[in-house]
Amino acid sequence: METMRVLAIGTSPKFKALLEATPVASEATKFEVTALASRAKRAAIEAAGKSVEAIVFGEHVPSPTVVRFSRTFRSRGIAVPIVVLTWETGNGVPENYRRAGVDDMLNVAEVNSPLFSWAFMSAVRYSETENKLREFDSLQSRLKDANQTLATIAHEINNPLIVIRLALFHLENPEMTKSRKIALFRMLSENVDRVDTQVEQLRQVRRILGDGSAVLFDREAISAKAQKAG
C-alpha cells in the first residue's frame, strides 16, 4: 500500500487522527501525517523538503501566515500541492492565496465525514493535475518562443554560410592576387565569427528550454483527469 506523507501545519489533533485512521481504498493509499504548529516555520520548511506529497494548513492558521509559508515553500522549489482547510464554502482559492502558491481549499466540515480521507485525496490529486497543466502551458510557451528564435537563427546563419562558400570557391582560383586572397580570408574570418555567434544563440535556446523540454504532456488527457478528480 502506498504511503502519502502529509505535512499538517496548525491543524487540530483530530485532523491527523482521522486522516491516518482510514486509508483510501480506491487509491490503495494510507496517510502518514507530520503535524507542526503554525509558528514552527523553520521546522515546517525542513519537513517540507523531506519527500512530503502534500501540505495542509488548518482552518485557524492566519491568512498572512498561510501566504508567508506558501511563498517560502514555492521559492525553495517545493512544488507539492498546498491545501487550506476553511469554514467557507464555494468561494474557491482567494487571489492572495493563489499568488502565494496555494492550490485548493477544503471545507473543514468534511473532516468529520466518513469520506474525509477520500475528499482530501481528491483535492490533492486535483491539485497535482492542475500543476501539471500549468507546467504544460509554461513548456508550451517556451517551446513556441524557442521555435520562433530557431527560425530566426536558421535564416541568419544561412547568410554567412553563403559568403563562406563563395569565398572558398574564389580561393580555388590559382591566378588570384595576394591582396584579393587577404580580403577573402578576412571575409571568411568575419563570417565564421557570425556563425559562431548564431551557434551560441542555439546554446542559449537549449538552456532556456532546460532538461524538462524532453517531456511533453497530452494536455487533453491531463485536463480530463483534472475534471474527473474534481
Mean pLDDT: 77
Strand content: 5-15%
Please indicate the count of domains. 2
CATH architecture of the largest domain: 3-Layer(aba) Sandwich
* Amino-to-carboxy terminus distance: 24 Å
- Low-pLDDT segments, ≥5 res: 211-223
Total number of β-strand segments?
5
User: Any idea what the radius of gyration is?
Assistant: 28 Å
Structural class: alpha/beta
Indicate the CATH topology of the largest domain. Rossmann fold
Element-by-element helix/strand order: EHEHEHEHEHHH
> Largest sheet, if any?
5 strands, parallel
What's the helical proportion of residues? Answer: 55-70%
Could you name the CATH class of the largest domain? Alpha Beta
Read across the widest sheet, the strand sequence of neighbours is 2-1-3-4-5
Description:
The protein has 230 residues and is an alpha/beta fold. The protein folds into two domains: 2-114, 3-Layer(aba) Sandwich (Rossmann fold); 135-229. Helix content is 59%, strand content 13%. It has seven helices and five strands; from the N terminus they run E-H-E-H-E-H-E-H-E-H-H-H. It has helices spanning 13-21, 41-48, 63-75, 95-100, 116-171, 178-209, 219-229, and strands at residues 2-9, 29-36, 54-57, 82-86, 104-107. The protein has a five-stranded parallel sheet, sandwiched between helices. Helix 5 packs antiparallel against helix 6 (178-209) and helix 5 (116-171) packs antiparallel against helix 7 (219-229). The longest helix is centred in the middle third of the chain and has 56 residues, at 116-171. It is rod-shaped, with a radius of gyration of 28 Å. The two termini are 24 Å apart.
